[in-house]
Amino acid sequence: AFFPALALGTLFAVVGLLFRNGIVRALGAIDQVHPYAVDYATYIFMGAPFMMGLYVLNNQMRAQGSAVLSMIGVLSGGILNIALDPLFIFTFNLGISGAAIATVLSQLISFFILLILNNKTKTVISVRFKTLKPSLKIYKEIIHGGFPSLCRQGLASVSSIVLNLA
Q1: Torsion on CA atoms 14, 19, 21, 22, rounded to nearest 10
Q2: Is the dihedral of CA 127, 79, 109, 2 positive or negative?
Q3: Each residue's pLDDT tens digit, 62-72
Q4: Confidence of residue 20 (pLDDT cuts 50, 70, 90)
Q5: pLDDT exceeds 90 at position 123
């Protein structure tokens, strides 16, 4: 699941960067906030592969019984984001772009913390490119296990978009 998530995140980043103006408009950005939304989205799209990889690592570690280690990785990024936001927004005078940069940087650090914890913990299956053995059976299992969460998150996202547009 990890490597396809990175690949899908890269595709998402490329498509998102190419069509970010239309995407933020479709998500409900009005004229007054459109430039800020595009600035924010630009950095978020750049970080998409790592964010998607982070979510996969988080869920894989929790599913394998390492919820505490998973929480450490995710929590460290959240705390770091809280600290970096005012630094990038006000101290470095980057405004909304600073908030996005702080978010992506925090997520990137969480990604690497989880990747290291994942590969150093003996109770968790390590993520290594050499062990990648894609098969239709495995991807069916991944989709079967993740589809309910995709639907739940998708519905929440659609609800937010509809609310923004209303």
Answers
A1: -140
A2: positive
A3: 989 999 999 99
A4: very high
A5: no
Tens digit of each residue's pLDDT (9 = 90 or more) over 41-59 = 999 999 999 999 999 999 9
User: What was the pLDDT predicted at 113?
Assistant: 96
CA distance 54 to 107: 7
CB burial of residue 21 (10 Å; 0-12, 13-18, 19+): middle
- Whether residue 125 has pLDDT greater than 90: no
Phi, psi dihedrals of residue 7, rounded to the nearest 5°:
-65, -45
End-to-end CA gap in the chain: 36
Q: Residues 114, 111, 94, 46: what is their CA dihedral angle, to the nearest 10 degrees?
A: -170
On the 0-12 / 13-18 / 19+ scale of CB atoms within 10 A, 56 is buried
Q: Do 10 and 47 touch, CB atoms closer than 8 A?
A: no
Residue 152 to residue 155: CA distance in whole angstroms: 5
- Identify the CA nearest to 106 among candidates 153, 43, 160, 35: 43
Asked if residues 73 and 58 have their Cβ atoms less than 8 Å apart, the reply is yes
